[in-house]
Design brief:
Arylsulfatase, C-terminal domain, 3 helices, 21% helix, Arylsulfatase, EC 3.1.6.1, Alkaline_phosphatase_core_sf, arylsulfatase activity
Length: 158
């Protein structure tokens, strides 16, 4: 029996694919053999995390996109943004019905601690400069993956 527990480990919807295949008897490297070589498997096998044999998520980072562009990366409690949506660019209230604000690049070190500031209202990038190094390294590594496996769906934003 799986014991109930709480976790703030990172899980992505894409993790369900390799996890389900592992549970069905196709663990690890076998997953890559089940899809075309041009398909990037972004999911991580979370079987041990879901079944409780390992208390930690097997995913070290989560990547966020805006208009088809890599916008942010999260590692542990820290989230680093390079693109943001400015909801107050059109209306004073910021309520305009979904993702309709202006998308713009950040000026630099926009880092948020999601444990102490889940609304992402105050950047702590200046106070946590060392944390920016692994976040930026992860973002650049993922950008290299995207060069090898470019998105098939193109979103026009210009």
């Amino acid at each position: 029996m799986i014991q109930p527990r709480k976790s703030d480990g990172i899980v992505d919807l894409a993790d369900l694919f390799p996890t389900a295949l592992d549970l069905a008897g196709h663990p690890g490297a076998k997953v890559a053999n089940l899809v075309p070589k041009t398909t990037f498997i972004d999911g991580v096998d979370q079987t041990s995390f879901f079944l409780g044999t390992n208390g930690q998520s097997n995913r070290k980072a989560e990547h966020y996109f805006l208009n088809g562009k890599l916008a942010a990366v999260r590692m542990d409690e820290f989230k680093y943004h390079v693109l943001i949506q400015q909801p107050y660019a059109y209306t004073q209230s910021g309520y305009q019905g979904g993702f309709t604000g202006t998308v713009m690049q950040t000026a630099g070190s926009s880092v948020f601690n999601l444990y102490t500031d889940p609304q992402e209202s105050d950047s702590i990038g200046v106070r946590h400069i060392p944390m920016g190094v692994p976040l930026q390294t992860e973002m650049h590594a993922y950008m290299e993956i995207l060069k090898k496996y470019p998105p098939r769906a193109q979103i026009k934003s210009d």
